[in-house]
Amino acid sequence: MSLTQPRRTIRELPDVLISQIAAGEVIERPASVVRELVDNALDAGARHITLRLLGGGIRLISVEDDGCGIPVEELPVALKRHATSKIVSLEDLESVATMGFRGEALAAVNSVSEMSLLSRTEGAATAFLLDGQTGEVRPAARAVGTTVEVKELFFSTPARRHFLKSENTELAHCIEAVRRHALVRSEVSFAIWHEGKIVEQWRSHPGEAGWNQRLADVLGEDFVSSSVNIDFRSGPVHVRGRAGTPDAARARADQQFAYVNGRFVRDKVITHGARSAYEDVLHGQRQPVYVLYLQMDPTRVDVNVHPTKIEVRFRDSREVHQAMRHAIERALAVPRAQLLTGNETAVPQGKLTADAAASFLSPTPAAPATPSTWSQRGMAFGSDRSNPDPAKAMADLKALWGQADQIQEHTPSWTPNTDKAPAMLSHNENAAQEWPLGRAIAQLQGVYVLAENSQGLIVVDMHAAHERIVYERLKQQLDTTRITSQPLLIPASFAATPQEITTAENCAEVLQQLGLEVSALSAKTLAVRAVPTSLAQGDAVELTRSVLAELAQHDAATVVQRAQNEILATMACHGAVRANRKLTLDEMNALLRQMEATERSDQCNHGRPTWRQVSMRELDALFLRGR
Ligand SMILES: Nc1ncnc2c1ncn2[C@@H]1O[C@H](COP(=O)(O)OP(=O)(O)O)[C@@H](O)[C@H]1O
Ligand SMILES: [Mg+2]
Question: What's the pLDDT tens digit per position in 45-61?
């Protein structure tokens, strides 16, 4: 039996079939039609867009706008393949500012549904209706703008229709498609009707304040109240928007909206950049929430990669990754305690207050003159900030890495530095109001520190909080230094992929920074000659391969920092004050002041919260007061 059919003559496909084939790429489900039609309405300058659906959009999708309309003589052209009013040349394509430009959506939709176009332009005496099936045009009634009706989607392509899910699922996808538009166009009002009932309505809100209101309307008040503002420039990339605090993270990645030059995109570089910004503060598998708008020169991004235009290609993906990461990281670093007093800019963004850190972590006068454990050395090293000596710093670090085993038993000792913060010890009411995390009042079961502030009670997990403080401190000290490495007695060699070899060659310097020495033995073999001292017991090949894989994908700075952070986090956990250690009130107050001044102090290194506010209102509710 032969599987090959007898040869047929080469023929050009009929027009409709070409469109149907193309529709396979662009139109996957009702929501894809909604996306294309709303794109068109926005491109036409609409201020009000109304979507009406029947049967989850399968039976009817109608999109009504008050945009510029389509002149009657152009109505039939609009349905043709590759017919567009948005670009005329390759230069236009390279700097395209509209949502559409491929001129294929209407043709595609028309080929897999029963479609009609009703439109009127400014100055026209009447509107005109075009029947997509027959091509017939006749006068009709309508104000300026356009209504596109799409009935019985996939009626002619039953195979496609079988892939559709339940009406409710399709409806949810349609709403999501409009949501994506609504989050970036707050000056436009949107209404969604299903089966004659209004299901979503987002009024227009002009201006900056209006945009926050739109976010609240679409994603809920909680999104706005538990997110921080982002406005960050990094080279040619400008990132704006809001990113949720670690507390606001969700089990699913369903509130991650990223836009490039106003277009909603799904992009690995962006998602990963955001994710890496949360690495240090987010627990386990939780998914951050954010709405972020990236703005860059249109020539730095190719939007003509996929027919749905949901994927893009960046000229320099590293610059985008870095911009995302830094934008979010910096905004999240500000301790939220500062927001309690409504003073978001109280501590300069970017760095932990060095004096405060030193005061909290400096050794007590009673500490031995020659520190015997790593954390004591660490403390001594760090508190000696007036005399930064790179060579000494290096030596201290070597000691740090080398003695990681001894730290388990150690509890660092510290006292507040009273010279630098005299108010810290005065227990007057005014001061308590000034300090976001309040005045310490007691320690509970050796685990929690209780404090009083103007809003009520503050409860601090003292180990978690101190762990973060130690960690941030170590990170700061390490910013400019290297991870020490240890040569292997016998180099470990492995068969490498061409990509691994290229990366190893290109990134030799970064690898060295990470404590790895890797060189090519042959065109297909790499040899690992040295590994980081602290990881000397591990599998050198495994480690090298994973680092090479990361380097191939991400910018070097990200990889270096991530590796450092991982090692430091382990050290900080051991170095932080253990539970069941009795603290004096002064020590507790010192801890609170320290938290207020330390970046990311709202989460411990594992992403758990370090403190909670229990408001007077919540306490009153517990006792049924004021009812
Ligand atoms: N709602 C609308 N209002 C005004 N013009 C529209 C509208 N929808 C479509 N058009 C016109 O029809 C053309 C074809 O639309 P489409 O097939 O989506 O391609 P594209 O959007 O890529 O140009 C558009 O270029 C535009 O001129
Ligand atoms: Mg279009």
Answer: 999 999 999 999 999 99
